[in-house]
Amino acid sequence: MAKINAESFKIFEELIADTDDTYIFNKETSVKGNGILLEVIKDMGLNPMNTKELKKGIMFLFNIEIFNMPDLENNRFIFTPNHVSDFDAIILGLLHPKIRIVAKDDWANNSKLRKFLDIHYDLYGIDRTSLQSLRALLTDSVNYFNDCGENKHYLVFSQGTISDFNNNSLERISSVAQKISEKTDVPIVNIFIEQVSLYYPTRIVFDKPMKLSKKEDFRKIWLEKEKSMQDALVPSARLPKLSHKHANNNKPGEPFFHSGTYTDNAVN
User: Fold this and answer.
1) DSSP track, the chain
2) Do 179 and 140 contact (CB within 8 A), yes or no?
3) 24's torsion region: left (phi>0), alpha (psi -120 to 50) or beta?
4) Mean pLDDT of 192-221
5) Comparing 40-49, 78-87, 97-106, 218-227, which segment has the lowest mean pLDDT?
6) Structural domain boundaries of the chain?
7) What's the Cα-to-Cα distance from 223 to each of 68, 89, 158, rounded to whole Å?
8) Rounded CA gap, 46 and 57, in Å?
9) Is the pLDDT of residue 265 over 70?
10) How far is CA 67 from CA 16, 21, 211, 224, 230, in A?
11) Average pLDDT over residues 242-259
């Protein structure tokens, strides 16, 4: 049920309805949606330019529930969440002040969005289809963790784009997080996030930290762990509602498979 009696919330509801309740935007609506979201936060009596107050508003608005979160203050992690909406990074990036988020160029190069995002988030833009861009990502991750002794984190969406892992083949999943872990000696933490909702709990589940050998297949392990975390939830996890494009990008041969797919097999 709607919890905010404000015109901005009604407009935000309408915008979400226009996405067919997928919570997925394009370049145009992402800017509009961001602006309306800030108005909703303001109408909650909070300052959306203050990161702590933005976090408080976001957690309340989307009914966030967090399970098994490790000690982020005294450790370093590489987070590898599933990706089911355009709010995933917005939410997860607020869980700690030092999280660098690997973001698609559409977000990282959107100057209108960056005016807001740069206040609260640390983004690293990437062209997922470019081997040169992926090599630069590995260099950035090493420099990021070696820069100083403070504890901080790196977040990579291993699916490369919004998709339902229940239908994904191994080819949909990138092993770039495993390569980062090997180069930095920082453990990987898988995260399951339910598709956000204004009306139902949005649950976030953390798995235990892990380090893999080069012989282990991160893609297979990632899929197994995501499904295990999802299936353990009570009540049962809500399955994501996706657009036609994002519902048909699961495996080679599907019409949108190459959209957002990492080209990382040749990166060492």
Assistant:
1) -----SHHHHHHHHHHHHTTT-----HHHHHHHHHHHHHHHHHTT--TTSHHHHHHHHHHHTTEEEES---SSS--EEEEE---STTHHHHHTTSSS-EEEEEEHHHHT-HHHHHHHHHH-EEEEE-TT-HHHHHHHHHHHHHHHHS-SS--EEE--TTSSS--GGG--GGGS--HHHHHHHHHT--EEEEEEPPP-SSS-EEEEEPPPB---TTS-HHHHHHHHHHHHHHT-SSPPPPPP--HHHHS-SSTTSTTTTTT----TT--
2) no
3) beta
4) 97
5) 97-106
6) 64-247
7) 19, 19, 10
8) 7
9) no
10) 26, 25, 21, 18, 12
11) 94
Check: CB of residue 75 under 8 Å from CB of residue 145. Answer: no
Distance CA 219, CA 225 (A): 10
The Cα–Cα gap between 257 and 260 comes to 8
Which amino acid is it at 122? D
CATH topology of domain 64-247: Glycerol-3-phosphate (1)-acyltransferase (3.40.1130)
Residue 39 CA to residue 82 CA, distance in Å, equals 28
List the structure tokens of 135.
């090599």
- Give the pLDDT score at 266: 47
**pLDDT of 152-163, one tens digit each?**
999 999 999 999
Residue (of 161, 130, 125) closest to 257 by Cα position: 161
Q: Answer for the pair 104, 237: CB distance below 8 angstroms, yes or no.
A: no
pLDDT at 250 over 80: yes
